[in-house]
User: Fold YqcI/YcgG family protein from Hymenobacter fodinae.
Amino acid sequence: MIDIQDDIYSSEYLSFIKKKEFPCVAAKTALTFQQIKCLVVDHLACPKDDAAILEFVYDFVDTYRQSEKLYHSAAVIFKGPEAPNEAMFEELFWQRLQSLSNLDAQHYGYDRRVVADPSSPDFSFSLKEEAFFVIGLHPGSSRAARQFAYPTMVFNPHAQFEQIRNNDRYNSIRDTIRTRDVAYSGSINPMLQDYGEASEAYQYSGKAYDETWKCPFLSQHGAINHHSAA
Assistant:
């Protein structure tokens, strides 16, 4: 049975992406293809829903791997906290990712196409041996494009970006998103880096960092895998 209230949260998220001014054209494409999956859970600080989140992401991975289309995305929407500031959201965001990773390490290795060390330019978050670029959204974000009404983690398969790059479409999509984001937010995202220049961990939570920041994530998946050039 579908929870009507949960369906409202999911509808709000899809409406957020659908807004004309929303800058991420990749998310808009995923919406058009009906390839955005949503899960609504309780509080970002609480581990009680971690098993359900993991099952949701695992199911998403299975669906994504079987699809011939690009632009798949999975959003986990949290009902609380209601009004986090950036510091609170960042702390709880990494707590949840750490907890999910610890559970995942009991069943799977780390995606060998990426690196588990968040200080590496080749870092990407991994669940079910599938690398993800994870985006954090919340109402207190300093970036307009990240200001969704509820704390949210968006899991975007990393391999999609590689495939888009191989299709020679990455630079065009990247430039379009950046131009639209400047128009939407009034400035360029200070954490934006071109692929491979710096760890993508800097872009996850939406908070602006300086060079002294150390990502708190530590993979428990055994020895850190080396990035494969294949």
